[in-house]
Amino acid sequence: YDKILDAHLIMNVEKHRKSAELTLSVSGQNLVAHSVTDDLFASIDETTDKMERQLKRYNSRINEHPHLSEEEKIEIAEKLAEGIASDEKSR
Fold it and tell me: C or N terminus of the chain, fewer CB within 10 Å?
């Protein structure tokens, strides 16, 4: 995914508790994944797996959102301008 702006990985070790937290800044959103196990490498793997699923969901939401072409934007702007102009004339 090429829109990741910033990434932070925090690893914590306490006796039998090893945790990993990954925070990514993506296009104005923060995605966070966290995992706690008794093995640090397992925590990191689990955290990255969770983040991968979040990125896939985020990416599919972005791609499902309808985007207008430049021509469609111009057409809508012209229709709005015509509507505003006709409203002002009728006053």
Answer: C
- pLDDT for 36-89, tens place per residue? 999 999 999 999 999 999 999 888 887 776 666 777 778 877 777 777 666 666
- Using DSSP's 3-state secondary structure scheme, residue 11 falls into strand
Taking the C-alpha atoms of residue 33 and residue 50, their distance in angstroms, rounded to an integer, is 6
Q: Which domains does the chain have, with CATH numbers?
A: 4-89 (3.30.160.100)
Q: What is the pTM of this model?
A: 0.66
Give the C-alpha separation, 61 to 9, whole Å.
25
- The Cα 33–Cα 25 span in angstroms is 12
